Amino acid sequence: MTEREALADTARLEDEASFDCVVVGSGFGGAVMAARLAPHVPRGGLAVLERGREFMPGDFPDGGRAAIDEVRGPRRPLGLFDIGFSPDLDHLVANGLGGGSLIYANVALEPLPEVFERWPTSITHAALAPYYERVRQMLAVEKYSDEADRPPLKRVEVLRRLAADLEPGGASFRKVPIAVNLTRYDGKPNAHGVPQARCTLCGDCVTGCNAGAKNDLTTNYLPLARAGGARIFAQVEVVQVTPSPKPGHRYLLKAISRERRGGRVTERTVRIHTRLLVVAAGTFGTARLLMTSAREGPLRFSAALGAGFSGNGDAFSIGYDGTERMAAGRPGPTIVAMADLRAVRGAGFVVQDGALPAIVTLGLNPVLGARRLQRSTVWLVVGHDDSLGELGLDRRGRVRVHWPSADRALPGGAAAVFAHLARLSKARVLDNPRSRAGTPVTVHPLGGCRMADSAADGVVDHIGRVYRPGGSVHPGLYVADGSTCDGSLGANPSLTIAALAERAAERIVADDLPGLLWGPA
């Protein structure tokens, strides 16, 4: 593992605090906004509030018991894995400093241009192109290549054969850009001063990188935010936003600050005043915060809040017990390649390989057998769904997904592709049993605060300004995360979420910031 300096502020957040700008959340939207806004705010005047805790290389779970202890719940509010079950759709998201980047599969993939045809008129693939490139540079993406220390992966060859079989229909194969340090650093500081090891090919990207080789947001955007003067507070969960009574400030945040003492977590309520507020708490966290604030206070938002929810066309399968080991040595990064079937008639999705992380194989060994699991791999489809899900609050204030058609909204042809992959590797198809029961699962929840050119059609405008019901915007209030996406992307969404945040931050600095910080509140 690689020794790093902590990013989170060690000073205790006061019971009542004031900042010029607060960013709620530290994922692909929040980290980008914090990094780009911090240099334009008086030093120490921007605060990042993250409900989860900070993880260092070596802190992530490495066994079944440790993984269970990291499942977030009422007794473990600081757990890494935020898992939700509902009759219509299950989900897995992250809870920690760095947001989803801690446990995502590192893929930096652009959607096709036509995806943006229904988005606000100023959001096009061409308009986002320079921001996509900026994010790729920040994430230091690379592609996996077969070399002496990185052996060929059998699962990649299976994908290559799938694409070749479907090539007459428009399929193609390629290695995908991944935010993993494969070649650049070997224990030395990266471009942001963070020491990083090279990838050890352990396959644990989606349970947290204990080697320190994953280019998650704690290695790039968040250190940049801190260098720009941001203060980063972990274990602080914002639960409500109201207008601030403090002169010169616009919003008052009610939050819960948590501290771990031995085996217990203590809580205290804090109040935070701010002139400018960026909500980037993730699709579910942002929906909950805005809905709770509207239900319990005077703030009002567009009637479209909660509508247009999407699982990004996610579908999973395991090719179990094939004829060959999927990796000659260690499993390699979680995802390294894809068969692009977006041009194939009746498909419209990509299918990617997936290494099984150690804690999953350890848990499944007694049931499925260690040798058989070595001859198994995960296949992930990312495509399009009908994006007709709706988010709402239950009586206990928890976000729930209402989407009776979710199982029928999955990409057509995915089951046939999973079967084709199984034939190529002479393996059996093991589907998610919840999916077989009509409840799919997503790791890419999107929408609920979608962008639109008017309050009648969406919750925020093209740079994330939050609409009032009548069509004007709440001054100094923005949303910057996957919730602003107008439906599924047909690609892994992290690159697009970050690019949208880069674009929004640029425009906020140029057009909004002076008036918001130094004008009348």
Automatic annotation (TrEMBL):
UniProt protein name: Cholesterol oxidase
Record keywords, A-Z: Cholesterol metabolism, FAD, Flavoprotein, Isomerase, Lipid metabolism, Oxidoreductase, Steroid metabolism, Sterol metabolism
EC number: 1.1.3.6, 5.3.3.1
Similarity remark: Belongs to the GMC oxidoreductase family.
Keyword field contains Lipid metabolism: yes
Pathway note: Steroid metabolism; cholesterol degradation
GO MF annotations, alphabetized: cholesterol oxidase activity; flavin adenine dinucleotide binding; steroid Delta-isomerase activity
Organism: Actinomadura barringtoniae
Domain Glucose-methanol-choline oxidoreductase C-terminal: 441-501
Biological process annotations from GO: cholesterol metabolic process
Pfam families to which the protein is assigned, alphabetical: GMC_oxred_C (PF05199), GMC_oxred_N (PF00732)
Cofactor or coenzyme needed: FAD
Keyword DNA-binding part of the UniProt annotation: no
InterPro entries: Cholesterol_Oxidase, FAD/NAD-bd_sf, GMC_OxRdtase_N, GMC_OxRtase_C
Domain spans labelled Glucose-methanol-choline oxidoreductase N-terminal: 94-294
